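ok so i was messing around last nite and threw this chain in just to see what happens. nothing serious, just curious
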Amino acid sequence: MRFAGLVNKLLVGAALLCAATASAQTIKIGVINTYSGPFATLGDLIDKGFKLYMKQNAAKLPPGVKIELVIRDAGGPNPDKAKQLAQELIVRDKIQILTGVVFTPNAMAIAPLTQEAKLPFFIMNAGTSVITTRSPYIARFSFTLWQSTYPLGAWASRKYKTAYIAVSDFAPGHDSEAGFERGFTEGGGKIVGKVRIPLANPDFVPFMQRAKDARPDVVFSFIPAGRQATQIMKAYGDLGLGKAGVKFIGPGDITTDEELPNMGDLALGVITMHHYSAAATRPANKAFIAAWKKEYGEKSWPSFMSVGAWDAMDAIYYVIREQKGRIDPDRTMALVKQYKNPNSPRGPIAIDPATRDIIQNEYMREVRKVGGQLANVEFETFAQVKDPWKELQKK
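result:
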């Protein structure tokens, strides 16, 4: 009898173990990011953003569901490498959702694969408008350059008569140029010159000298966030454009929060339009900053890329919860079209169901000193901006 009782207990235990195993569900999420090369700091900000979200929000997953990250490094803008990594993640690792991606060329190379494999792709950064049109399985949680540069052009046309445009020579730079020029000229402003700057290892001095020689009221620039933004800021200061009365404006990439300490007082007074500032006093942002500093140190600052990663991971958790851990690609995309978050660190956001692009506030910001530190201080809000490029295509 004792033996029979022991057998029964073992059978019950085995059944409970099998049931627990059957109920457990692992979601495999592929991440293609930039961890090496001259733009590695950008990938690090994204990595910190989504990992902080996961640590802060583990309880938001359904019971028995866990996430396995499969992380790969594409280096910088390297579309061939990004495509290869995406193929491996799809075929070998059998991921169910793909995310990450700093650069537009990488996102463009990956896009056709997501359509072929029916793989949801939640972009954390790459900001060229056309990307989401390349696959119905893409949703973007970052921004488009048109969202900031087109309304910035309209704003600038009310302040200045002439402008010079200097942008990096790749797709986001081209979008920035087109967006600002259209907004500025529609408002009555005149473009007195334009230049496109090589993306790899640029010397900004001769390009900013051309801008100075054109004698505009304002220079508009887009440069990839990070060290290059600091380099062009220093060229602007060293050549004395500010002292000559030439203002410097652009999207938020040129004065990202984490780079401001490296720029020094040269950045004071620079005007940008952007969807995020670490200095914002929104309660959700103050909580985000507090959690960030607790995790990464008092001297560490998140950037807009960190917030894009945070929000993309929030959307991933949302679609997992709604499907109770059983990911269907078409159901995932239907759900993400309904995604809204009134309490993102950047303010209220939503996904436009027609374009699968982000809808968000854009903020006019000025670099000022707050508590002895440089900060992007928001002073005007453009509420719930859709991607203007896509809106203009409808007309």
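not much to say yet. Residues 25-143+282-356 form a domain with the Rossmann fold fold (CATH 3.40.50.2300).
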